[in-house]
Amino acid sequence: MIRHITRLGLILIVIVIVMIIAINRLTDAPPKKTMNLSTHSFNIQPKEKIPSKYKEVDLYLETEKTDTYMIQTISPKTNSQTVNNAIETWLEAQKQSFLSSITEDSDKQASLKIDVDIETESKHYDRFVFQIYQEKIVGGETRQEIVFNVDLEADKLLSLNDFLAVNDQTLQTILKRALDLVEIDEDITIHDNIRQNVLTSRDTWEWFMDQAGLTFIFDGNVITEQNHAPIHVNIPMQALYLHIDDNINQYIQLSETQIAEKEKAIQEEKERILAAKREKEKQEQQKAEAQKKQQKSSVKADDKYVALTFDDGPSGQVTPRVLEILKQYDAKATFFMLGSQVDYYPEVAKQVADAGHEIGNHTEAHRDLTKLGPDGIRQEIGSTSDKINNATGVRPYLVRPPYGAYNQNVINDAAHNGNSIILWSIDSLDWQSRNADAINREIQQTITPGSIVLMHDIHSTTADALPELMETLVQEGYQFVTVSQLREIQGLNGVGPIYGRTK
Length: 503
Ligand code: NI
Known about the structure:
Number of helices: 15
Largest sheet: 9 strands, mixed
Structural class: alpha/beta
Helix content: 40-55%
Strand content: 15-25%
Low-confidence stretches: 25-39
Distance between the termini: 154 Å
Bound molecules: nickel (II) ion
C-alpha cells in the first residue's frame, strides 16, 4: 500500500512539474517582440509606466536586452513638449552612442542604465538630474551626471543666462575658477588640453543653481583621465552677487541675508567705479594744468628757443642716456618713433612720455612714403600711432616722414587724420659723422632761435655729443621746447610741412 502511494505520489509530482513548466512557457513566452539577429536573441520590453513620486511628471521604464548588452532607462514625461523632446532626443543619442561602442563577440554583457531624479526649486525651476551608469565590455563601470534645468510652466529649457547677467568672457572666468577649485579639492592637475576643451565647449557644461550658488558638475572620467565619479564644484552666491540677473527670483528664492548682501555688493561696486572715474578725471585735470603751466612759463615768443628732435628710436641703449642728459638740463624734446622700435621697447616709449617729452610718428618701418600708395601710407602711419598710443596712452599727431620725403598723398593722409608734417631746419648729420665733436660743430654753425634740430637716439655718439651741446646752448641763452610748443609760439597750424628756422 505504502509502495503504491509512493508510486502515485511520484507520478503526481512529475505531472505537477510538467504542468509548471508548461504554464511557465505560456506566461513567459511569447514576448511582445522576439527576433533572431544572427546568433543573438533580441528583446525589447514595451515602455512601462512606473509609479512616480513627482507631481505632474510621469515616469516610463524601458528595457532592451540581448546576450551582449542591456539597456534600461527611465524617461520622464512632463506637460512641456519642449522639455520632453529635448530629453527624448538626448536619451536616444545616449543609447546610440552606447550601442556603437559595443562589440558583439564577447561573453561579457555591457550595460547602460539611466536613472532620473527631479528636484523642484520653484514653480518655474525644476532640475532633471540624470545618472548614467555604463559598464562597457572594455573598461570598467563609469558614472556620469547630466542636468536639464527647465521651466515647465514656460515650456522651456533654462540657460545660465536666465540666472546670471554675464557675457561669455565672464562665464569663462567663473568656469576657470571652478576648474581651479577642482584641482584643489581633488588634489589633481587638470591637463591643459582638457581645461581648454572644457572652457570652449559650452554645450558640455553641466550646472545647476540653488540658494548655495552655482554648481558645476564635471565629468570625473574626463577631468581626472581615469575612472572617476562626477565632480561637483560650488561657486558660492556671494561670488555671484554682481552678476545675478534681476529675474532670478522667479527661479530661486534668495534669503533675506543674501538679498541684503547683494544690494550692498552692488552699491559698493558702483561706488568703486565712481571713485575710479573721479580719480582719473582728477589726474587728467592735473596733467592738463601742468602742461598749460609749462607752456606759459617756459617760453615767450621773443625768447631764444630751439626744438631738439630725436628720430628712429626708441632704442634700449641710447634713448635712456638721452633722457638722463635732458633731465639734467630740465629740457623737453620731441622723439619721432618707429612703430617697429616701439614693438621692441614699449617701456622706453612710456618712459619718454612720462618724462614730459613729446612723441611723434616716424612711421612703422622707415619706408620712403613717396613710393607707396594712399593705402600703404595710411598703414605705415596708422599702425605706428596705434602702437605709440598703446605704449604711452598718448596718440601722436606729429608725423615726420622718413628721409623727409613727402608728396601730395602724404599731405592728404595727414590732412585726413588731423596730423601735422614736421621736418627740420638743422641736420646734425649724426648718422653720417658718428662723432660727438662733428655733431656739435654742425649744429653750432647753423642753429638759430626757432630751429628744429634733427638727431637720432640710436647712435651712442649722439648721446656722447649731448652734454656739450646742452651746455653750450644753455650758455647762449637757448631754451628747449617741444615741436608742439614751437608750433604754438610760431603760430603755425595745419598740415605743414613745418621746417623750423635757419640762419
Ligand atoms: Ni629716420
